[in-house]
């Protein structure tokens, strides 16, 4: 297989939090992330759904060791948003793939997704930029994923 990735980074002990049923209101979303920052909680991967019936969901990741503080911070918003649902999924690994050439070479996301899916590795979240792709997977799949992806690292 072609070597298409120049850097592979692994982040262990990652928690995925999804906030569901948030009314579309940029101010409340900004307030949520500001309160996490004020609690000294570093948020990593962030993904927002398209609006549906005036509501959105936002998923983001953080380190497992700040989960308790994050939940305490987020609970405050249940008063203002009674329909808010906070879903938590811990013990994950983030695999980040980087190469400057990604912005000129289509299909890298498709190739790497196929590698993971063909190996029965569940992808919980994907975030991208022009030059990097990050996958959130179960920690138990980390070694298998790294082994497969190492085959395409330059």
Key descriptive features of the protein:
EC 2.7.2.4, 154 residues, ACT_dom, six-stranded antiparallel sheet, transferase, 6 strands, Alpha-Beta Plaits, 5 helices, alpha+beta
Amount of beta strand: 35-45%
Tell me the name of the CATH class of the largest domain.
Answer: Alpha Beta
List how many beta strands DSSP finds.
6
CATH superfamily of the largest domain: ACT domain
Protein name: aspartate kinase
Keywords: Amino-acid biosynthesis, ATP-binding, Kinase, Lysine biosynthesis, Nucleotide-binding, Transferase
Catalytic activity: L-aspartate + ATP = 4-phospho-L-aspartate + ADP
EC number: 2.7.2.4
Description:
By secondary structure, the protein is α+β, with helices and mostly antiparallel strands. The chain folds into two domains: 63 residues, 2-Layer Sandwich (VC0802-like); 79 residues, ACT domain (Alpha-Beta Plaits), CATH 3.30.70.260. The chain contains five helices and six strands. The protein has a six-stranded antiparallel β-sheet.
Topology:
Blueprint: E1 7-23, H1 26-38, E2 46-48, E3 55-63, H2 67-75, H3 77-80, E4 85-98, H4 108-118, E5 123-128, E6 132-138, H5 142-150
Antiparallel strand pairs: 1-3, 1-4, 2-3, 4-6, 5-6
Domain ACT: 17-96
Organism: Vallitalea longa
Enzyme class: transferase
Give a nutshell description of this structure.
This protein is of the alpha+beta class and 154 residues long.
């Amino acid at each position: 297989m072609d070597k298409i990735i120049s850097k592979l980074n692994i982040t262990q002990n990652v928690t995925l939090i999804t906030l569901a049923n948030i009314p579309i209101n940029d101010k409340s979303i900004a307030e949520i992330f500001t309160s996490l920052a004020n609690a000294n909680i570093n948020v990593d991967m962030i993904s927002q759904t398209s609006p549906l019936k005036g509501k959105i969901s936002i998923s983001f990741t953080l380190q497992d060791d700040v989960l308790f503080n994050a939940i305490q911070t987020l609970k405050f918003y249940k008063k203002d948003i009674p329909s808010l649902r906070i879903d938590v999924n811990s013990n994950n690994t983030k695999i980040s793939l980087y190469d400057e050439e990604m912005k000129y070479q289509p299909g890298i996301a498709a190739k790497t997704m196929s590698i993971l899916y063909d190996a029965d590795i569940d992808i919980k979240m994907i975030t991208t930029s022009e030059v990097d792709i990050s996958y959130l997977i179960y920690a138990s799949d980390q070694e298998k994923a790294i082994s497969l992806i190492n085959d395409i690292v330059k």
